[in-house]
Amino acid sequence: MKLTTVYVRFYRSFNFDYLRKSKEDTTSTPDLWDLVGDDELFFPFVRIPLEPDVTTVVGANEAGKSQLLYAIEALLTGKGYVRRDFCRYSTEFAEEAAPGLPEFGGEFTDLSEDEHSAVLGLANWTAETVNSFHLFRFHDRTVVYVGEESVEVDEALSGLALPRSFRIDARVPLPDSVEIAYLAGDTSRTGRTRDGWLGRMSFLRLHPESLDTPRTGEARPVYDGADDPPSNQLLEQWELARRLLVDVAGITHDEFSELGAAISISEGYAEALVKKFNRKLADSLNFRRWWTQDSDFSLQLRLRDFDLVFTIRDRTGTDYTFAERSQGLQYFLSYFVQYLSHDRNKGEILLMDEPDAFLSNSGQQDLLRIFEAFAHPDTDTAAPVQVVYVTHSPFLIDKNHAERIRVLEKGENEEGTRIVKNAGRNHYEPLRSALGAFVAETTFISSCNLMLEGQADPILLAGASNVARRVAPSGNALDLNTLTLVPCGGARNIAYMVHLARGRDEDKPAVLVMVDDDEEGRAAIEDVKAMRGLLPPSLIFSVADTADGSRRPGIVELEDLVPLALANEAAKRIAAAVLPAEQAEAFRSAWTDVKPRRGQRLFKLLKDAAGAASAKGELVRPLELEKVPFARSVVDLALAKDADPELQQELYTNFQPVLAHIEMRQREAMRDNAQARISTVINRLRKNFIKDHPGRIRKTDAVSLLESLQAQLPLEAAEADAVLQGMRSIHREFKLADDPRSMLDEPDLFRDRLFTLSYGATNAVQQEA
């Protein structure tokens, strides 16, 4: 069972749907559940549609994002809300006949056979089969609706089981350490914390006579220090550690008991047990798959008195405790452990409130992958979980799935919270407004950027990629989480934007450029090439270029790739959206479908056709067709639920060569960027080393340099392999393992080899002429 729509009324910032109530069309017709009181006053519920897999809720402060999560819990459980939760600025708040409590509802679909039977058993419905139903918790009753029919049910819902909601607690990180006795099953609160034990031991060292039987008439020293049991917060952290080590890693309580006994008997045996635990932990976590910031990261255990301490080993080979690292990793591990240890049942909804608080930008992208794993598990034994999360962060938004975004906005006075429709259209403009101008701009900054001419180009490319995921899941589609589409405002601005991105700072992001295949586009290509050293020529191309080096004749701009039927319908759809009904109908009647001949630009013909239809239809004001509304209209039609599959396939077929070419050039740009980073690291370390060792060089110093270099290389880049091979060659050639305290025989040759090492990554990818 899936929750596809949430209905909220009179709950905190959610008053009612004031926009729907104010409309004078068919959408304002009340549903059965929208009427209040004996007078049947029209107070429509605020409706928030949810995706069957992942839903992202964003909005400004106090927009009602967190309250939506509580509303979902109230709907599913019937608990957690009282009279004081009633919307206080609602006109109904002071009315005697008004509902005494907030009201919630939901639409449920994807029913299993048992759930289908349970719904049918609630009443003698007219329908013999039920695909979905609505359930509403009013202030005085609970009602189930099937179509136009309804039945009142008791608090137990007459045996109907709704999905269960749960939360990953974003407030509980993994602890620095955990008591071995707790892991062995001693969960009593009478134990002492580590500080308590250390206090007693210090007292005994200072007062060993406290253990002796005092002489007659003498007083024995008594420990009077703090001896508090673990706090609730610490116990929550210990429980998270237990879930990691017992539920995930599979270490048993008996094994921890054995470790506790071994501490006082055999230190070597205790250390051997800890090594065994570390192997189990590494095998079960496979953490490098999820934490992309360090492919060599590992979580390990270390024995310390009565505790097991969590330590982190990074790519440098150095061990750290949690106290020595940022909180982000500690909290991500907490989310990850809760994900791995969660016992999934069918019909569950994960709710998370701002999990981005402690995570870096990359960490938030990694968290998105955990959400995706919840919603789309890679094993048949795990049931899919519906995910709803609230965020303030632009980095916790999956830009490949604009349909998942829900933007909440709080109105003035009694208007309350509403949902902004079409949040992902026009390159996420409502999303930018909700997050704020400064923060929202950072949503579209990444390590790889595609410079485009106009504002409509990102909309068409993003839309084509979304269509591609529907019609060809294994085909070509841009990953908008790793590639930023940057509109430059015209071909003349391309060179300046490239300069801003690549020409000022030492750390240069990866950039590629795609322009229209016209005179202005070709001039822009020459302008960028004239700025020597900024971009390789292969990363500057036009929409007509393809991955195999050929060109597509007749393709000048992205609009030329839109299928004709879709383009003509998009133009008429714009007219229906911006013109009065009578003029829109006159425009549609006067419209003549365009059919461009070879070499003609599709969009120019559409603009001319719009002018001709405006004149023929005798419009008061002619319709001026612009590229951005046209692109939005095309994407809306292509992604609509009732979209023509043949037109979707045609759109993908037309855009596929462009998408494939961009993907290929993106990989090239990322390789070039990795090479530049590798050369920067090598040159910095080499210069510092030569400055510190102008004369003779000891072998241990040379080894230390190579180890530092290996630790700082971006090992996830394939280009690093050539550098690593060169380092191994240097190690063998200068026999650095022999007599490590001796001096190098040829220090100048060693310096030369370091210089050639700087270009190992570049030479490795050079193609022979």
TrEMBL record:
GO molecular function: ATP binding; ATP hydrolysis activity
Pfam families: AAA_21
Residues in ATPase AAA-type core domain copies: 191-398
Source superkingdom: Bacteria
Full protein name: ATPase AAA-type core domain-containing protein
Source organism of the structure: Mycobacterium gordonae
Lineage, highest ranks first: Bacteria, Bacillati, Actinomycetota, Actinomycetes, Mycobacteriales
